[in-house]
């Protein structure tokens, strides 16, 4: 069961205080308001994520950080009279109720006004008054106001609202030419007709409908220019996209020419369980290895597990003596599937024919804390038994947490257990200090062991960071994956080129998405910073079909139906283009027309190993600017789930190599 009070405290610390909301009164107000009371019952688990959530009548409750920026900009000190336009669920009004003497809030949708009034009354907000009406005209009966907050975007500040400000009063609202381009501004009244305007942040709100705002359109709440833009976008996609007739036979010459001499190609996926994504990613990678000399594939999998596959595709002796079934932890279908198996077999055959230009297979992730500990110990037992005894002592404090490393992080956080950080870092340092001695015996085996030791150090930090909020743990994980990628480039030598396989959320530049507003970075962003145009980022998308996923973490895989994309998303616009499969280049200047049309942020869908169609908007959509996120985008309108590899291919045991990668 979710501890909502702890989640609220985490939200305030991670998403407000760490991002500059430090006014003690504002922070205290957010700590006191139970956001779970203002969201639909089936979305309570997402109440303290920093994201907008749907409420009724096609409206949303704004993300906590944007509410906080608005409230903070009003500069309330207590005793003020405040007007709010756009009550919604009443959450922002409740926050304001803790800061001001009286709050008057207007909602144009009657059933929202009624439910917000009842909710605020039930929660004891006697100083918050709700009315149903046209918010663009304000509430003259209670004017003037010391502050006005508007929770919808308009073409300009309504004159009626400006006239209801006291001298020195502040109005904060989103303003822009349409709903795709808004700036949150603060307007201060400095005289009878004098106002000072300050921009605060780029935002996206629902449109401000009313006499002095946007005009209502029956059946929908959109600005006409946005609709026209979507129609034009579909036409541009049809004109400029490169059709994909078949994954196995489609020409990739144009894509390879655009990739040119890039040093790293990052290939994403919009889900962790779609066959078309896996097969096209494998097809591109085969071309990069066979035609462009790429030396390795680095995937979103654990290092020791991928090392078993690396042994297999290289066809040599086993470097690790550790015995375990690789890629067996949840979610097994993510890598133990028919599509990956086919690529692994191709890579083994390719390496057998090209002994002087073999390509490796490696894992970037850090979840294999205890498998990596075992790998380090196994290595040291052979090359340095004395160091192995020291390692067992240093790693020993982590042993009780082998079944639940996350519980270790919580125990350290609350002071019930001492951190093992000094011990695991010391072990890594000792191994690196003796790298020359160890590498002389077997450089490849030392590299593998050193990466496992580095993984142990980073994983220990990761499991402690989980309890500090999603941004901290996300950044540590992606930083580890990027550092592992850099270590691979160093290992393969000057001029080496590599391919990365990860989810879109890891390979697409995070600075072009709402992840950046949460303080999150990712591998794609780090690669662009490190390699510039020598990093080539490829994303994927789909509208509907089936996907391999689970309803909750650590539950069985299901073949789920992917819902058709939501209006207001890139996926819906691409579906409306009417082409079954295509690729779209987004980097070159000659693509300026389609790039400019795609540039304003829209919703984008991301399905991981868990898929919850019933809460899809909250749990699987985020805002992004696609041309800034990727250099290339590949679309499959209808897709199907990957086929899990239930067991090794049917064959007699003595016909399978000892290093068969997936085990039995």
- The CATH topology annotation of one domain reads as Rossmann fold
* Distance separating the two termini: 36 Å
CATH class of one domain: Alpha Beta
Output the CATH homologous superfamily of one domain.
Answer: Vaccinia Virus protein VP39
Count the beta strands.
Answer: 20
CATH architecture label name of one domain? 3-Layer(aba) Sandwich
- The residue fraction in helices comes out at 25-40%
What shape does the CA trace take? globular
Helical segment tally?
24
Question: Could you explain the architecture of this structure?
Answer:
Mean pLDDT is 86; it is low at 218-229 and 647-660. Among the domains are: 4-222, Vaccinia Virus protein VP39 (Rossmann fold, 3-Layer(aba) Sandwich); 223-294 and 497-642, EreA-like (biosynthetic domain) (EreA/ChaN-like  fold, 3-Layer(aba) Sandwich). It is an alpha/beta fold and 664 residues long. α10 (303-314) packs across α11 and α17 packs antiparallel against α18.
What is the fold's blueprint, element by element?
Elements: H1 4-16, H2 24-32, E1 53-54, E2 60-61, H3 64-74, E3 81-85, H4 91-97, E4 102-107, H5 110-122, E5 128-132, E6 145-150, H6 159-163, E7 165-178, E8 181-189, E9 195-203, H7 224-240, E10 242-243, H8 253-259, E11 264-267, H9 275-292, E12 296-302, H10 303-314, H11 338-353, E13 360-365, H12 369-383, H13 385-395, H14 405-413, H15 421-433, H16 435-441, H17 443-465, H18 470-492, E14 498-501, H19 504-507, H20 523-531, E15 535-549, E16 558-562, H21 570-576, E17 581-585, H22 592-598, E18 602-605, H23 616-620, E19 621-624, H24 626-629, E20 632-639
């Amino acid at each position: 069961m979710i501890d909502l009070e702890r989640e609220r405290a985490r939200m305030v610390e991670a998403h407000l205080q760490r991002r500059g909301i430090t006014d003690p009164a504002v922070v205290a107000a957010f700590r006191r308001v139970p956001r779970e009371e203002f969201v639909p019952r089936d979305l309570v688990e997402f109440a303290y994520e920093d994201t907008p959530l749907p409420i009724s009548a096609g409206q949303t409750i704004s993300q906590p950080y944007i509410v906080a920026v608005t409230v903070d900009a009003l500069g309330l000190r207590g005793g003020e009279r405040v007007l709010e336009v756009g009550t919604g669920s009443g959450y922002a009004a409740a926050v304001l109720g803790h800061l001001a003497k009286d709050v008057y809030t207007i909602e144009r949708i009657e059933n929202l006004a009624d439910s917000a009034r009842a909710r605020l009354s039930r929660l004891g907000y006697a100083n918050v008054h709700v009315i149903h009406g046209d918010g663009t005209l304000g509430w003259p009966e209670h004017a003037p106001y010391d502050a006005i907050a508007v929770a919808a975007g308009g073409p300009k500040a309504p004159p009626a609202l400006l006239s209801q400000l006291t001298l020195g009063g502040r109005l904060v609202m989103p303003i822009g030419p349409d709903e795709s381009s808004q700036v949150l501004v603060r307007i201060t009244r400095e005289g009878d007709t004098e106002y000072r305007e300050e921009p605060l942040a780029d935002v996206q709100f629902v449109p401000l409908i009313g006499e002095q705002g946007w005009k209502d359109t029956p059946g929908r709440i959109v600005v006409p220019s946005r609709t026209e833009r979507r129609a034009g976008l579909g036409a541009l996609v049809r004109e400029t996209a490169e059709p994909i007739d078949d994954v196995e036979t489609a020409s990739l010459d144009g894509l390879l020419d655009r990739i040119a001499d890039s040093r790293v190609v990052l290939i994403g996926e919009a889900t962790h369980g779609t066959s078309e994504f896996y097969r096209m990613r494998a097809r591109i990678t085969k071309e990069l290895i066979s035609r462009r000399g790429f030396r390795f594939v680095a995937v979103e999998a654990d290092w020791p597990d991928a090392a078993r596959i690396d042994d297999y595709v290289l066809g040599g002796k086993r470097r690790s003596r550790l015995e375990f079934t690789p890629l067996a932890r949840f979610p097994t279908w993510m890598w133990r599937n028919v599509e990956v198996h086919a690529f692994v077999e191709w890579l083994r055959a390719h390496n057998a024919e090209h002994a002087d230009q073999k390509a490796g297979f490696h894992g970037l992730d850090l979840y294999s804390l205890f498998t990596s500990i075992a790998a380090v110990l196994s290595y040291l037992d052979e090359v340095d038994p004395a160091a192995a005894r020291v390692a067992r002592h240093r790693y020993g404090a982590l042993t009780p947490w082998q079944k639940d490393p996350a519980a270790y992080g919580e125990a350290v956080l609350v002071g019930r257990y001492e951190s093992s950080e000094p011990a695991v870092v010391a072990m890594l340092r000792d191994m690196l200090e003796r790298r020359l001695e160890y590498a002389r015996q077997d450089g490849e085996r030392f590299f593998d062991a050193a990466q496992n030791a580095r993984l142990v150090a980073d994983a220990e930090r990761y499991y402690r960071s989980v309890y500090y909020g999603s941004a901290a743990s996300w950044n540590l994980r992606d930083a580890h994956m990027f550092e592992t990628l850099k270590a691979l480039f160093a290992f393969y030598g000057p001029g080496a080129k590599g391919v990365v396989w990860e989810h879109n959320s890891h390979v697409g530049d995070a600075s072009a998405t709402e992840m950046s507003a949460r303080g999150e970075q990712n591998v794609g962003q780090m690669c662009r910073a490190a390699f510039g145009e020598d990093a080539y980022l490829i994303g994927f998308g789909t509208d509907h079909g089936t996907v391999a996923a689970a309803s909750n973490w650590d539950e069985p895989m299901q073949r789920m139906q992917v819902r058709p994309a939501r209006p207001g998303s890139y996926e819906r616009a691409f579906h409306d283009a009417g082409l079954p499969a295509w690729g779209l280049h987004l980097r070159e200047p000659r693509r300026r027309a389609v790039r400019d049309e795609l540039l304003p942020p829209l919703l984008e869908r991301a399905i991981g190993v868990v898929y919850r169609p019933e809460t899809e908007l909250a749990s699987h959509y985020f805002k992004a600017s696609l041309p800034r996120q990727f250099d290339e985008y590949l679309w499959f309108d209808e897709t199907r789930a990957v086929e899990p590899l239930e067991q090794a291919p049917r064959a007699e045991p003595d016909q399978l190599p000892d290093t068969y990668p997936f085990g039995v």
